[in-house]
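Work Package 3 (structural annotation) set out to generate three-dimensional models for the target panel prioritized at the project kickoff. During this period the team completed the workflow that converts sequence records into discrete structure tokens, so that structures can be stored uniformly alongside our sequence database. As a representative example, we reproduce one entry of 128 residues exactly as it appears in the project archive.
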Amino acid sequence: MTSTLKRPAYLVLACAAALSLPVLAPAADPARSPGPDVYTVQTQQGEPSITVTARRGEDQRLNDEVVSAIRSDARISGRIGVDTLDAYVTLTGRVMTPAMAERAASDARGVAGVQDVTSYIRSRVGEE
């Protein structure tokens, strides 16, 4: 008898969970928007939404060029992430030395069209 009562409870919990899943919907027509693609995550229960942006056009080109510039620099080894929004580049990751982190930021600043570079790259050697 106990197992019969538990099954409907699990079914009710599963249905409640399915109803609370967020829905991803475009917030604006990308053809009219000059900036990145913007999507708004809305919940069915009226909770606050989350806005997600994706690179478009010029930012994607700059991002690709920064990645290429850093990848082609033989003096840099490690894992570096590159993110670009409105021509502002953010670097993340880890390299072996502080000099490599500076070189990566310098390579990114050398790409034509980059407005500014923020580096959150950490080094394995030379950190306190």
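DSSP finds three helices and six strands in the chain.
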